[in-house]
Amino acid sequence: MGVPSEFYKDYPVQNEHITPIDFNSMKQIPESHAWVESNDFECPLDKKHNLDLESIPVIDIEDSNASELIFHACVTWGMFQISNHGISTKVLEEVESQTRKLFNLPLEQKMKVLRSPEGAMGYGSPRISPFFSKLMWYEGFTIMENSFVDHAKVIWPSDYQEFWTFPEEPFVLYVIVSLLRISNVMDEYQTRMKGLAEKLMGLILKSLQIPESDGIWKIQDPTRGPKSMSTALQLNSYPSCPDPARSMGLAPHTDTSLFTILHQSGNISGLRLFKDGLGWIRVDPRPGTLVVNVGDLLHIISNARFPNVVHKAVVNKEKHRISLAYFYGPPLDFEMSPFLGYRACEGPCFRSLKVSEYVSLKAKHLDLALSHVRIG
Ligand SMILES: O=C(O)CCC(=O)C(=O)O
Ligand SMILES: [Fe+2]
User: Fold this and answer.
1) Predicted-complex ipTM score
2) Who's near 50: CB < 8 A, 6+ residues apart?
3) Pocket test residue of 262, 289, 290 for ligand 1, highest count of atoms within 8 A of CB
4) What's 320's domain CATH number?
């Protein structure tokens, strides 16, 4: 979820958990990246017998029943796919192509925007890395709101100026042009995602029958100014891997957000969700759709009615997979309470707490964070 950089100052990450290796030069996976049975319990959907559970629902968000359909999908899966979402193929192709360009830069260029040990933005390994004994076959780039160019200037001010001072160098020029192009595309994508997220939020709150007088409806109010929603765009890159069965793209986790909107590139399988009793289920990319998954904060607000779905990403031998996750959450100062409407379970399952407290608990305890919030 989008949090200010200074937020993680009490939870610094060690360098080995920030710096990705040069994946492209690897003919085999190093011991540091070799997982034991990483892809256990793989459970292809075509082997399922229960037809109702056979696929993550695709919901047309303009459908008059969208809210109802979302409710059922969230209760059953904690995940759904959306069509008719208004993000054009052109925008998605553009953002994907710029993302590929960024990750295709030589490692030493990407290292110039490496996330700091206390930081939230920039290039690096997953922030969940310290919680696992093995490293992931992954490199990512986290962008917060505002313009990407502004972040770039903040992240590497001296080099940025150098680029303008010595423009005769062709590679440097290429980087400047790429940077500006990427910035525009990333800004545009975030703006579109924000609009879509606001719409989805309305449908989700309606699906839980939370009355419009409740404070949660008001957090999207733009007059709140800088204290508006916390969002982040996470560019995920999974280079092709010599030994996918013993590697992990992104280890099993739940998202801290209210919900996440995920775009999976091309026709490359990678996302898996965990369903009790069934194991790992493939959520392959489907043209024209985006994936939406329930995060921890919506799990709390829905009083555990919506599962915060455990998911992971696997890698493959031939293809370089890209995905883009847009995390959407309430402002850090927002006090969350489980909603106890007639659809929720009896009594509150969680205590009330500020979003900032939950984000800190997550940074410290990862998947055990919820046990610090649960009542009874
Ligand atoms: O790449 C994927 O399919 C999953 C990404 C993800 O779970 C995340 O960015 O939190
Ligand atoms: Fe995730």
Assistant:
1) 0.99
2) none
3) 262
4) 2.60.120.330
